[in-house]
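Subject: Predicted fold for Argininosuccinate lyase, 482 residues

User T.R. writes:
Posting the sequence so we have a shared reference for the thread.
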Amino acid sequence: MTDEDRAASPAVRGDRFSGGPAREFMSSIDADRRIFEADLAVDRAHVVMLAEREILDDGDAGQILAALDAIEESGYDALPDGEDVHEAIETAVIDRIGPAGGRMHTARSRNDEVATCLRLALRDGLLDLQRALVEARRQLIALAEAHRETLIPGYTHRQPAQPTTVAHWALSYESALARDTGRIRDAYERTNRSPLGAAAFAGTPFDIDRERTATLLGFEGVVENATDAVAARDAFLEATAAATGVAITLSGLAADTIEFASDGLIALDDDYASTSSIMPQKKNPDSMELVRARAGDATGGFAGLATTLAGLPRGYNRDLQRADRHAWQAIDAVTDALPVAIGAVATADWPADVDAGTGFGTATGVADRLAMAGVPFRTAHEIVAQVAGDGTPSVEALLDAIDDALDERPPDLDRETLDALLDPAESVASRDSRGGPAPTAVAASIDRAVDRLDRDADALDDARDAVADAASRRQEAVDSYV
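User M.O. replies:
I've generated the structure tokens; pasting them so everyone works from the same file.
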């Protein structure tokens, strides 16, 4: 075979494994666009390390690195035929510089190569998702700041329960998204370890430096065991589970918003709504319905990934080629949904004239006040329940019920006190325990939320800076050979 013939053949398959009806079925080239840049980064780090360890001649290293630059400039669509992006890039290098291009694959396997590329791509996806979470929480805190005293009814079992505020409701989702942020950050930390250098699954006899390639790629360390490095996809499972948690949080926010719109508690901006093709009066919260549906995309991705990984024997198995797409399905779903969901509530109009005490929502406050006066709470609960009926009772009915049930009414439970207890604003203001809806309690909660957000934003900036610094160091190393 001449050099020209050899260059025309795919680098890995050659002529023997280049045809047949299963080739397209086994190919991942269409799905690999996502890891094109990651593969080039891995190739560069590996070639630099080989040259530094004198496993690869500096001249060959320079040619290979120059070819990789040209391939990047030409773009993904210019790659030659290949079973996957890894083979296509290697083939393109050999096409450009001849057989010496095949030396770039010294001391590695596609197994550790692909595992490293996927971790780089996952790392980027988790950073993007963290950024979206931080911004979403920032908007929810701003919404709470603006609506500390805007009353709405609170619900349990989708029935009016107690009056609360828009701020208190918004902070409940900020708190949930803060925990989601922590889970994504934890997944990022375990993702940020390099499999490169594990080779097929049993290491290599070459005197490589795994820590060097990890540093060049911005990883915090290496996956220690070579078999674990190529076989494990638990980082993807953890990340997908965490992303699914975000989707479920958003689905609840979307469901609340849809119900609020139906109840007249919120008016979405037109940018987040649509109308009917036949009913001109309709303004539908379509964007939030689609946000709610993204929970299905995410949970489907998690289920698909878990099913793919279940029962795999240790080592590399081709089943893993199908694993990452499930993770992207979940991560992409929530990253896209976050700005829409939060944008919808942040730009909405929250009417100030709603009946926050609907359905006798202040009943618990009356029972609490009786208990504060020394009446056993269960007795107080029964007294108020007798007059609950279908709505808020009159002060006279409450006084009569209290007088009928107690030998002596507490002296400070007069008409004026009961009037205040039935006022939704007074009811909210009275619930000033930590985390409660009273404006004073909400102000303290906002301060704590801002502190927590600032810490998470700083941690995200540090992570992004570390990746950017690694890219700069990698480019400096490449430039020293090209």
